[in-house]
Amino acid sequence: MPGTFDVLPPESRRWEALLATFARLVASAGYGLLITPTFEELSVFQRVGESTDVVRKEMYDFVDKGDRHIALRPEVTASAVRAFVQHHPTTPWKVWYAGSNFRYEKPQAGRYREFHQVGIEAFGSADPDLDVEVVALGWEYYAALGLQQVELLVNSLGDGVCRPPYRALLLQFLAERRDQLCLEHRARLEDNPLRALDCKKPECRKATADAPRQIDHLCEPCSLHLARTRAGLDALGIPYRIETGLVRGLDYYTRTTFEYAGLALDSAQNALGGGGRYDGLVGEMGGPDTPGIGFALGLERILLALDAEGVETGAALPALDAFVVDFAGGDAARDLTATLRAAGLRADRAFDGRSPKSQFKSADRSGAAMALVVGPDEAAAGAVAIKDLREGAPQVTVPRADVVDEVRRRVGR
Ligand code: HAM
What we know:
Layout lengths: L11 H16 L4 E2 L5 E3 H5 L6 H4 L3 E4 L5 E4 L4 H11 L5 E10 L11 E10 L4 H18 L4 E7 L6 H13 L7 H5 L7 H4 L3 H6 L12 H16 L5 E2 L11 E9 L8 E7 L3 H4 L7 E7 H11 L12 E5 L4 H12 L4 E3 L6 H11 L3 E5 L1 H6 L1 E6 L7 E4 L3 H9 L2
Helix pairs in contact: 1-5, 5-10
């Protein structure tokens, strides 16, 4: 299928590393795992904005056998809000997620029809220090993976008080220059004038260069919110650039919006992740007025950025600790792998009574640190020969009872 892909071992070890690093990081900040369905009623996702490409053009929607109008999720925020409204957990409610999303886009490098995100959402606080926490967690994630060429872009989109007058001002400005905009934004101007600010086409960039900026037209509470958010990022030593054209592709945002750009990537697909506040969304989806903020980070883009920066991820994950080579009947392979695994070590073996040569070949291919060899002599003596497969240390023979300790000592765990 165009725009989809398989991930096989050993490449999937990189994905394991991305997920494990994220889970560890967000758990350390009090976020719990949220799992929601991959498909929901279409109406759940329509709330992300009737004027957005995600809803207008990219939705994978269909009518199921029960005549329900369903969509595969294009993102998780709407589902998280739906779950919040449905289960009314106590706030603050801080959750994280990882999984597939679906958008009918033209497939290209870094753009897929089924793609994967990790993300967080935090409900129940309008405190700008929460904005700082959320933005910082995304930043720390990239750093933990070893990415260095990431730029943080921050903007404020105002709120229900200061956005409408700003929008009217912008619309008036752009309407006077309608014929200088690209065709798409000429046609969609009244729908969503803010999107023209985000357009990458040279004609729109030129026509909007002197457009009024939301950041100069914030009401006082929004202005104070932005100032406190900026002060927090400064205090944590997180560098960022104010990007007044950052409006994002979903309609639910208020106040803080942000994006992480991968500077080592081709600029058309360099959004590694993004997010922002959505203080009105819970109310719009039928819940009590509750502020919210979150982000989602694209895993495919992160892998591209890691490649572009030459960072190895996942290779650092331990492969197997030991591979049992048993040509004395198979009992040792069965029992030793079980003992090692029970001790928390990673162990594998060959099956089907293969020849010693074939088993050693499998041991080499497995990436194990060592082979535990049991031939008829070792079996008779109740011993195991340990052959180093990486550094070529001399082979030693140890009593069966000492094998776990010896493997542990050698792999340092
Ligand atoms: P988004 O900006 O639409 O935001 O997507 C977040 C990230 O997902 C993008 O920066 C990009 O890395 C990745 N992504 C999006 N579309 C594709 C695609 N077709 N192929 C590969 N990667 C893609 C959201 O999804 C919001 N739910 C973020 C959020 C959470 N806002 C508040 N909370």
